[in-house]
């Protein structure tokens, strides 16, 4: 009774929030196309000025119309913006940039680079572009997607990061010199996210190249964090990767921790890995128990669970999107609405916001055009179609244009109270912020494919399906096609159940049988002790028929799947 009344009350509150005039779906539906075009114009205003004034440097300095190297010296904004070009439909520029990058980017340089940033921006950007290149009309080589120039570049960049993982714990150093490896005297203190944000890119690399080393080091690092969680199930912010002692003991969902949790969920979906999912669900319980108050999340001491900072950080705004991926849409929506009130108060999300005081925190009043709240709106809009989410998109477009647009691009907002600007345009503005805004306003984008449309490619390892949707975004918004991970299996017994995937499809060849058993090179993460995981059912036999009869994609479904993807799934029960 009481619980029922409470949820009814909550529903009424939410309903009331949506009633003001002009916010109904019809009113919003009218201008979704015009906002989409405004987002496209934003992209080109920033992108063209980067090319004109900043290339080949990493980033544009929009107030002085010049460029600077920030995270290395890779023409970073170009790599980061590449897949956004395709999402906006610009195949000719995508093709041009692929050629520019092949000729111009060199990772054999004497530069100290962030292991985390290089992975998510460079390796992630190159992998995503590699997997999308056929769709973008690039002439791909015969072995694609198991080979190709962008894949070789991604692998080369990732190899430069491997020395960082050679520690007693398997947790990586935070910085590596691209030429010499880890510098002598390098600090052993790394943030949690800098240890746990590799599995999406590194497992993709291992599956495409056949070299297990990448996935192995990423899994080992994830395991080490899990092993070092506190008795109450929380992880801190920074840890010593040599001694495994926690240096910063604040536990929360924001800066320094964020994408570790994100990659447990996304890694679980990408790899169909129950163990990663159960790790996340354990953390999720502890996070709810100790850090959640009134649909806000605070920072607590990782061993005692006492509140250390009653602060909301803008980076935490990814959390509602992550909750939607595990199907927890109601909680996601409630937290999203809290965060959206902060946006409305300032026209952006300050880096830190003091929850009890309802105001910014000293020295943390800036908004560097971050994507996280827009990212959550994009996921939640896919899940609910709630027009409030389009309103956040509208507000973001209006704010960013009004406050941060300058002649040479868009500038970081140094202070949301007086709208002072900083001379920087982070590469994630074009990689993430603009991309998620565009996808929010473009319901028919190929990224939102629900599996009814797909391509079949023939690889040296047999036929496989690509571009069927269910893309997993890395934490820099680079979409990875999960089906691609099943295209390049080197061992017969490891092969994806091609029969189920290709049911009644291109069926001229002789009957074959494949079963999926995961080999030992899959890392201890997916041990054979889980019989459902290594599905032992016989794969359906190919039907011999003259004509290839087309049917919708139908893939084997596993029990924990139903909870997972709210986004267009590749794994559907009854397509």
Automatic annotation (TrEMBL):
Its cofactor is Ca(2+). GO terms for biological process: carbohydrate metabolic process; endoplasmic reticulum mannose trimming; positive regulation of retrograde protein transport, ER to cytosol; response to unfolded protein. Belongs to the glycosyl hydrolase 47 family. Residues 515-556 are annotated as: Disordered. It comes from the Eukaryota. Residues 519-543 have a biased composition (Basic and acidic residues). It comes from Atrichornis clamosus. This is alpha-1,2-Mannosidase. Involved in the endoplasmic reticulum-associated degradation (ERAD) pathway that targets misfolded glycoproteins for degradation in an N-glycan-dependent manner. May initiate ERAD by promoting the first mannose trimming step of ERAD substrates, from Man9GlcNAc2 to Man8GlcNAc2. Seems to recognize and bind to exposed hydrophobic regions in target proteins. GO terms for cellular component: endoplasmic reticulum quality control compartment; membrane.
